[in-house]
Amino acid sequence: MYTIGSPIPGQAYYDREGAYLIAVKDGKFAAVREPKGYFLLGGGIEEGESHVECIMRECLEEGGIDVSVGELLDSGEMYTIHSKLGYFHPIQHYYRGEVIASVCEPTEPDYELVWLELSDYSLLYLPVQRAVIESLLKK
Q1: Residue 135 and residue 88: Cα distance in Å, rounded?
Q2: Helix (H) or strand (E) holding 25
């Protein structure tokens, strides 16, 4: 597990668990472009939802795509300050997967599915996501 930052003693953090897809094809990986930047496909797990269900829902909402989800590759966490949530502790789980088909328009406004070159992982907005992709490239 990768940890970016460290908790500030005495601060209460909002923990948010999430699940994300790492789909690689022809030297590129799937990502979503939104106004803040590039992110891996996925997001926060809703109550009663499994990691796989979360990834499938988020991929449909963010990219309008159907995906298959494979094994857990890695996990990461970050301690940060979120502009709306305050002290924030996202805990992210990354799964190997593949994009099966485009099935609809994304329902998330201003989101677009893109394929980035593996060497462009530094474009990802979150340092924890950059660290995981960088680690996978070294294997």
Answers
A1: 24
A2: strand 14-25
SS (H, E, C) 32-56: EEECCEEECEEEECCCCCCHHHHHH
> DSSP per residue over 106-121, as a string?
-SSTT-EEEEEEGGGG
Give me 11's structure tokens: 């601060």
Report pLDDT digits (tens) over 7-51.
Answer: 999 999 999 999 999 999 999 999 999 999 999 999 999 999 999
Chain centre distance of CA 46: 15
As beta bridge partners, residue 68 has: 98
Q: What is the DSSP letter of 107?
A: S
Q: What is the pTM of this model?
A: 0.94
Nearest one of 35, 56, 20 to 133, comparing CA atoms: 20
| Phi/psi of residue 28, nearest 5 degrees | -130, 155
